[in-house]
User: Which sequence fits this backbone?
């Protein structure tokens, strides 16, 4: 009797919470947890969407397929007796993505901070300017802008028209030249600095003005003030922006897909990781392999995020200045 | 001293304006070019068209495969509307539970939710596709819309939790004393007070659904179900060799109008959304 009433009481105390969470629970278990376990398993198989009945366990086969070229492997047989070829483009997609992330994220953050500092003055019209500077970010992820970008950086595009009128000749088609194609995408990413700018601006507003006044009285130059006051006090915000931008840069897809015309572009110069994953999983229907690729991406992002957080002990100060 | 400040401010203004113009020049150029005759688009980099025409809008609107852009835009709008309803209901419910209700395991599940926030979608995308395919949902809007009713966009749950936590608890308590149930508190106190955060949620849900391309590429297979973003991509084609660039630019211009209007009319919600959660734009 007492146990029953305890159980009733327990249910009564907890039921409302779980009822409100019910949609989230269904979503979490059915659309997140189960797919994660499933994709982990798929990553160890040669699951192909067109012939799921022929699925075989291949152990680390998919992972050898990715990293085999590093060790000079081209064809191999798994322990379960399946013969596989390595993926000649995987490492390329990895290097393209790393170049993109390590170029675009620091550039974007630097630019965002510079603009945020420009905006952080007692000027009229700052809200309006801020809105205008946010426009590229507002639109940048859309197909429309990707289409536009391709037109801008073509052989006869707007960019070359400008450079031509400045006297430059023999201009390349930036978008189809493997040397430059990736950099047009980096530029497109830097152009979308708006979110980071707004977060920096909010951070800058938190820094007490007295610090700068005191430093100025002590004769510190503007440069000195920037490095001794702004950067340290803003460091938690920098860390936050760095992590968020890094995670999303690793997952970039739409722009590369549109600009490369559905492929990795000329000589796979814009073969982003996500794009390669999509091509493997949906064009070739090799969904086992695509799942394995997804897990490697998760691992890469996880490790890099951990490194950034670890290193933050050295450069992020959670000062007691407030 | 005073004149010096004035000069400095004027120079800063000029600099900000010049930089801003450079920033948005490509967008302005796209809008202006969409009103130029097709063959003049790439011979004239200027912003003032010599001839103004609506022919690009007429030819672009026709779309392809017998489906007009009217249909594509209607599809996009319908999808966005349903996505907003889904996210508002499911994310607010979850956020209320995390922020206000007491139950066993709350902190654990909250931590789990925060982890899903950082999780790259790639690790779930293949199994989700296989799952939706077995339900026969590929080719419909269900794979895109059903997750919205299941609070899968953890960003919004987090945003709403933060907001609801900032509301004074005394209001809940007063309402409870007056005989309000948990559901009553939720509907009569929390939801009305959380309105700013709900607007932010609706706004970003709209933008992300409107601009989303990856999911539309995966799940929409028939031209008559295409959304504007998906349709634009096919309109441009794989090789990008379409002759009707004017039409592409015209439809691109139309496709950015809704985001534009919402952004300028609801700016403060934008800033709030970005600064509380670091939402990507």
Assistant:
């Amino acid at each position: 009797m007492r146990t029953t009433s305890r159980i009733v009481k327990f249910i009564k105390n907890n039921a409302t919470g779980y009822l409100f969470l019910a949609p989230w629970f269904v979503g979490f278990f059915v659309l997140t947890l189960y797919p994660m376990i499933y994709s982990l398993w798929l990553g160890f198989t040669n699951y192909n969407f067109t012939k799921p009945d022929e699925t075989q366990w291949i152990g680390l086969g998919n992972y050898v397929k990715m990293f085999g070229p590093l060790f000079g492997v081209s064809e191999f047989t798994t322990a379960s007796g399946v013969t596989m070829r390595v993926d000649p483009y995987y490492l390329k997609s990895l290097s393209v993505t790393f170049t993109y992330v390590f170029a675009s994220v620091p550039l974007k953050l630097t630019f965002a901070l510079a603009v945020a500092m420009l905006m952080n003055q007692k000027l009229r019209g700052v809200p309006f300017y801020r809105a205008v500077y946010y426009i590229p970010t507002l639109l940048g992820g859309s197909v429309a802008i990707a289409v536009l970008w391709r037109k801008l950086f073509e052989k006869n595009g707007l960019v070359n028209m400008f450079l031509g009128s400045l006297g430059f000749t023999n201009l390349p088609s930036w978008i189809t030249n493997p040397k430059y194609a990736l950099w047009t995408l980096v530029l497109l990413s830097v152009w979308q600095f708006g979110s980071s700018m707004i977060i920096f601006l909010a951070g800058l507003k938190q820094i007490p003005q007295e610090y700068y006044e005191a430093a100025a009285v002590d004769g510190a130059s503007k440069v000195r003030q920037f490095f001794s006051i702004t950067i340290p006090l803003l460091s938690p915000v920098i860390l936050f922006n760095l992590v968020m931008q890094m995670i999303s840069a690793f997952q970039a897809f739409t722009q590369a897909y549109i600009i490369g015309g559905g492929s990795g572009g000329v000589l796979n110069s814009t073969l982003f990781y996500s794009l390669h994953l999509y091509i493997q999983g949906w064009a070739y229907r090799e969904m086992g392999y695509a799942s394995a690729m997804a897990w490697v991406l998760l691992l890469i992002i996880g490790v890099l995020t951990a490194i950034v957080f670890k290193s933050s002990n050295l450069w992020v100060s959670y000062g007691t200045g407030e | 001293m005073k004149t010096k400040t004035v000069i400095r401010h004027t120079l800063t203004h000029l600099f900000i304006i010049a930089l801003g113009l450079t920033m948005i020049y490509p967008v302005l150029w796209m809008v202006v070019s969409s009103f130029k005759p097709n063959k003049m688009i790439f011979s004239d980099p200027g912003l003032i068209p010599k001839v103004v025409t609506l022919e690009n809008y007429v030819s672009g609107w026709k779309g392809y495969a017998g489906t007009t852009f009217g249909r594509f835009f209607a599809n996009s709008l319908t999808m966005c509307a349903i996505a907003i309803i889904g996210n508002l209901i499911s994310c607010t419910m979850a956020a209320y539970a995390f922020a206000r209700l007491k139950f066993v395991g709350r902190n654990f599940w909250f931590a789990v939710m925060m982890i899903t926030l950082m999780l790259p979608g790639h690790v779930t995308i293949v199994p989700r596709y296989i799952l939706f395919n077995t339900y026969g949902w590929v080719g419909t809007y269900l794979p895109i819309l059903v997750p919205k009713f299941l609070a899968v966009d953890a960003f919004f749950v987090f945003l709403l939790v933060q907001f609801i936590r900032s509301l004074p608890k005394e209001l809940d308590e007063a309402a409870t004393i007056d005989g309000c149930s948990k559901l009553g508190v939720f509907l009569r106190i929390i939801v009305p007070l959380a309105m700013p955060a709900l607007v932010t949620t609706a706004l970003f849900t709209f933008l992300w659904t409107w601009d989303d391309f990856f999911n539309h590429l995966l799940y929409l297979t028939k031209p008559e179900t295409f959304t504007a973003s998906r349709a634009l991509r096919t309109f441009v084609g794989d090789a990008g060799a379409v002759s009707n660039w004017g039409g592409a630019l015209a439809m691109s211009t139309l496709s950015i109008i809704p985001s534009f209007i919402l952004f300028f009319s609801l700016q403060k919600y934008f800033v709030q959304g970005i600064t509380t959660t670091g939402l990507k734009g």
User: Anything to note?
Assistant: Chain B has two domains: 2-58, 61-277. The mean pLDDT of chain B is 90.
